[in-house]
Amino acid sequence: MAAPAGARRRGAVQLARFGADPLAYLDGARALEGDVLSTRLGSKTVHLVRRPELIHAALVDEDWPPFSRGRLMALDKWYSGGLILTEGAEHHRQRDTLWKPLLEDPRTLEVARERTERWAGEIEGTIVELFSASRAHVWGIDWAALTGEELTPELLRAQEAGVAALVWLLGPFGPRRWSTPAGARTRAARRRLDAAIDVAIAARRAQPAGDLLSRLVALEPDDQTVQATVKQWLGADQLMGIFTWGLHLLARHPEIEARWHASLDAGDTGYTVRVIKETLRLFPPVWSFFREVTADYRLGDHVIPEGDLLVLSPYFTHRDETVWEEPLRFDPDRWDVRPAPGAYFPFSAGPYECHAHDLAMREAVLILTTLGRRLRFKPMREDPPRPLATGAIVPKGGLRMRVLPRG
Ligand code: HEM
């Protein structure tokens, strides 16, 4: 049934406000009251879950079959299948038999260690734009672990075009834009990246090498699924958020930075873990995610009607003062106490939790400690960068930092 004209207009206005600045929109929504905040965004009614108990219930009690990948399917234009675009038994097969062995393979951390040592040497004494440099570093590690090769500048640009497309593809006109002249650059980027991955797959089918891709082709006979898995591995670039925002927060809090350096000198990684957790609290790269419900779904006293979107927003909840004390304060010591269930979920939770959670934390600790033992990062500007929500939370206009030896 079509919505009445008034509701459609309200939906369009809300969607425009949300689209202009999603984080400001979510910041504003915290003034509203209710366990579940419902509104119309464009043609959809969305329900943002506020109370941690309900967030926990929605994430962990996901014995609810009633949700579909919904709008996420638009990402098929870039990926053509793969884990995040499948459901049910095939989803579990890919998660357990393809991703799990790759995520547990020690190669990624070995490559990360070696490349970060080298990277630290390269950036020492220079000025870097930390966001794009961290992202390129993370992609370089992934590509080297997968293929044993260097990510060329051309493939780096193709990957950049792809992750930019993932954002607009999720918008209301995304799939239509893909086929227009405006989408031509992205289609060309996809062709370039696919061709490079296909060559690498064919080479490993002929002769296995000692890389993750060789393991993957041995596990999966379908080349298209292998290609999509490689692209989704590269697409999961959220680690760069930890380095960008973590080093920014440390540089702005000299006492905490000094404690961090002292902990590194003492060979302790516990404080680094707290810094990372606190960074993911304030700047969760996956700032929101959603489920489209395919049948009425009861959550506490609420019923989410069929076809609506249930929204879970780490950014909204992690900065909610009804959930966290002084939520905007960067305070690694708050991690002396475990947060309540549903209060903190940068990796989601329950059956659809990020299955790379453990690898991501280990890789983040490794990279951050390697950088921190050797280098100090100084902001180039007085005023802090404005966070902007795209696929992740990125610093608007970039984050230029002077990289000094720790001495
Ligand atoms: C700081 C790092 C990371 C964060 C904060 C993060 C966060 C998340 C979140 C919140 C989800 C669930 C989204 C949802 O339920 O709709 C997710 C899923 C996923 N993550 Fe991560 N992630 C990180 C790193 C990684 C890495 C390094 C990889 C791969 C190497 C990865 C691969 C994936 C995949 C493939 C999914 C989809 C899982 C599925 O549908 O079963 N993530 N991630």
What does this structure look like?
This protein has 407 residues and is an alpha+beta fold. It contains 17 helices and twelve strands. The chain has helices spanning 5-20, 22-29, 52-60, 76-79, 88-104, 107-123, 130-147, 153-169, 174-178, 184-206, 212-219, 223-235, 239-252, 254-265, 270-282, 314-318, 357-374, and strands spanning 36-41, 44-49, 67-68, 127-129, 289-293, 297-299, 302-304, 309-312, 375-379, 387-389, 393-395, 400-405. The longest helix has 23 residues, at 184-206. The radius of gyration is 21 Å and the shape is globular. The chain starts with a helix and ends with a strand. 35% of the residues are buried. Bound molecules: protoporphyrin IX containing FE. Residues 83-84, 95, 232-233, 236, 238-239, 242, 285-286, 289, 346-348, 352, 354-356, 359-360 line the site of protoporphyrin IX containing FE (HEM).
Primary descriptors:
single chain; 5-stranded mixed sheet; 17 helices; 407 residues; globular; alpha+beta; 12 strands; binds protoporphyrin IX containing FE; 2 domains; 3-stranded antiparallel sheet; Cytochrome p450; Uridine Diphospho-n-acetylenolpyruvylglucosamine Reductase, domain 2
Fold topology:
Elements: H1 5-20, H2 22-29, E1 36-41, E2 44-49, H3 52-60, E3 67-68, H4 76-79, H5 88-104, H6 107-123, E4 127-129, H7 130-147, H8 153-169, H9 174-178, H10 184-206, H11 212-219, H12 223-235, H13 239-252, H14 254-265, H15 270-282, E5 289-293, E6 297-299, E7 302-304, E8 309-312, H16 314-318, H17 357-374, E9 375-379, E10 387-389, E11 393-395, E12 400-405
Parallel strand pairs: 2-8
Antiparallel strand pairs: 1-2, 3-5, 4-12, 5-8, 6-7, 9-12, 10-11
